[in-house]
Amino acid sequence: MPITLELMPLEPKPVEPPPPKTMVVRYGYLRLIGEFASDVTGKTGCGTKLVLRTNRGTEIGEMLTTACGNGGCSKSITRDKLLEYIDLSGGRDYPFYTDGRVLRMATAQDLANQQRLDEQRSKHLTQARELVTIHRLEMKIVAVEHLLGGERIILYFTAEHRIDFRSLVRDLAHQLHSRIELHQVGARDEARITADYEKCGQHCCCKQFLKVLTPISMRAAKTQKATLDPAKISGRCGRLMCCLRYEDQTYEELRKRLPRKFSRVRTSEGEAWVMDGQILTQLVLVQYDNGKQNAVPMEHIEAFDLPKPKLPNGKTMQTPFDAPPPPDAPGRAGPRGPRQQPNASAPAGQQLGKPPQPQRPGQAPHEGQPPRQGPPNRPQAQNRPPLQAGPTSANEPPIAPALQTPAAQPTPESVEQPKVHPSGPLPNAAADAAPPLPPNPADAPPPPPDVTPRSSI
Questions:
Q1: Domains of the chain and CATH, by start
Q2: What is the CA radius of gyration of the chain?
Q3: Which of 13, 103, 120, 168 has the fewest Cβ atoms within 10 Å of its own Cβ atom?
Q4: Where residue 106 falls among pLDDT bands split at 50, 70, 90?
Q5: How crowded is residue 69: how many other Cβ atoms within 10 Å of its Cβ?
């Protein structure tokens, strides 16, 4: 019996989509974005290196996506989504260009030429900075960018004031043999060119996708309850981090839902004062009139902005601290008694109930205080006899009598009376005399010579 084989029909090969007419590309040190008409006929994908013709010249770019009209392919987006993204990312301030064209896919020779140009950046950057020092200009050269076609060399610099760099451009063009273009950037653009990673471990937002760099205020950090330490909330550029404004709108909407501080609200336990609130958890810290505090969710608050109570004097309370404390509150001092009158008969130091202060030696006693008792009386000091001139050592002869000064005989008028110390008389001179010093060995006579005869050998 013959066997019949039936062949299944082959599936038709899917039709490849036509090459895109436009491409969204990224190029330059500042990572500019543009949608250019494409002349590429081959198959491309996201990240493909392309050769572009821009308003600056011929340069290397990178393909991001395609903006097909129907958005049928998986790597493309519709033009409406592209325009919506631009509008949400900054609108007219977004650096989006359309005056360019995609020439071809970059070849190995194109990439090698671009790498050869990039190797000269360090050398040209050093030369530019040396010329800035020679011309004494208050500017800082940040980076040097070379285009593939060699039409120009772009230098990025920062400066605080307006700089007249015409002479600098002339000298740079003479040394580098190319057309020079100086482009001034700010602190955030400098970080976009030179920085790489941030504290979070990701690429800097300004270098990766953020194109419109709007200023950030300290209010955003305070609203998000972030630390106010500048070292922790500042980015690589020295300014406040751009990520603080990502959730600023959400925090602001949640903050508006919370009641104002020191306003009156009503809960299931009664009326209370609003002391604080948490934005993300939507919890409100309230304080009741009896001093009790409790954290209440926003869903459990029944009424807001209730009238504030009044004080006995008719004034309205603004905060819970304006309420007078109850009379039996713990820690309250009792009524003051009559003021204590000083006692005139008591000493000066004890009139107001103060303990008597000790008196220092030699200090006059205060008025009303008994005099200080000193040590017991000592025997009265006697006049010491005048010193007699004599030899100072055994080898020194005594002073001649003719050279000795006769001692003056005291008269009754010249006799000085001994002074008595306030605490008592001085001790006796004989008792206070110093003990005799031991004899000095140098003053002793030398020993007699040894006259003992030696024995003969």
A1: 22-106 (no CATH), 113-185 (3.30.300.20), 214-253 (no CATH), 258-321 (2.30.30.140)
A2: 52
A3: 13
A4: very high
A5: 11
- Does this model's pTM top 0.85? My answer is no
Separation of first and last alpha carbons in the chain: 162
Q: Is residue 142 scored above 90 in pLDDT?
A: yes
DSSP classification of residue 288: E
Closest listed residue to residue 156, CA positions, set 174, 140, 172, 178: 140
| Integer Cα distance of 446 and 452 in angstroms | 18
Closest CA to 32 of 95, 103, 89, 106: 95
Residue 223 C-beta-side C-alpha neighbours within 13 Å: 19
Token pair 């807001």 is found at: 304
What is the rounded CA–CA span in Å between residue 319 and residue 311?
A: 12
Local confidence band at 110 (pLDDT 50, 70, 90 cut-offs) = very high
The pLDDT of residue 358 is 58
> What band does 201 get if pLDDT is binned at 50, 70 and 90?
confident
Between vectors from CA 308 to CA 303 and to CA 312, what angle results, nearest 5°? 150
Q: What is the mean pLDDT of the chain?
A: 76
d(C-alpha 231, C-alpha 239), whole Å: 10
Please give the backbone phi and psi of residue 304, each rounded to the nearest 5 degrees, phi first.
-120, 160
Between residues 79 and 23, the one the model is more confident about: 23
Amino acid code (one letter) for 410: P
Please give, one letter per residue, the 3-state secondary structure of 342-361.
Answer: CCCCCCHHHCCCCCCCCCCC
Question: 454: which residues sit within 8 A by CB, 6+ positions away?
Answer: none
